[in-house]
Amino acid sequence: MGRLNGKVALVTGSGRGIGRAIALEMAREGADIMLSSRTQGELDSVAQEISDLGRRAETVICDALDAESIKAMIKNTAEAFGRIDILMNNVGGLTGDLKEQLTLTYDDARFEEGIFLNLTSAYYATRYALPYMVEQDYGRIIFNGSGYAKRGGGLLAYTAAKHGLIGMMRAMIYQVPTSITVNTLCPGWTNTQLADWDALAELYETDGPTVKAMMEQENAQKRILEPEELGPMAALLAAPESAGITGQVISVDGGYKI
Fold this sequence. Notes:
Layout: E1 8-12, H1 17-28, E2 32-37, H2 40-52, E3 57-61, H3 67-81, E4 86-89, H4 108-136, E5 139-144, H5 156-172, E6 180-187, H6 197-204, H7 208-216, H8 231-238, E7 249-252
Helix pairs in contact: 1-8, 3-4, 4-5, 6-7
């Protein structure tokens, strides 16, 4: 038996990357999964992988920059499965040209968009999932943070929003029943679309291989992690035996900037 047997997990941004890896790991541990992103084709592919593992997977298209779309995602999950045990707030990232996200050149609309994508979207998803968790007296909420959630150096809105997730978590744990835990899982540099070495090379005015080598040097293991390395920790934080783990910032990052 898996540690998540009988549980329902909603994983946002689960069409690829870290979200996909976490959804698959939770399915291996016995959970049924609601997959959410903007791209139906990606969701269908992951849903098939979960089905091949013998677990149920449903999909819902959600625009993480739209509050009503996020609320509908929660409602659809509850209607499809009858409960929501685990909310993995994974969706996030960067949009647009990186150079317009520097402090002295930031586009105002892009800043607001970055805060919404990386912080406000998690608020809405959590806010509307919580009543189901309270009613069933069980809930596991996980925010996907970042190495930049704990220190400086990142782009303005992204870093501010990721710090905000930790602040929101620390406020929330005092305001929910003890049967509901809230934690933040922080990856470092991971092999996903966010690690676009060519785009970062333009920002740093160098080339892709040089930027990748620079980022590899930022953690103690001197490497870029794979998305699958986040899955086991997310599954643990989602499990019943993690009842005493709440309000924690837990890194799976190869020792990022220790």
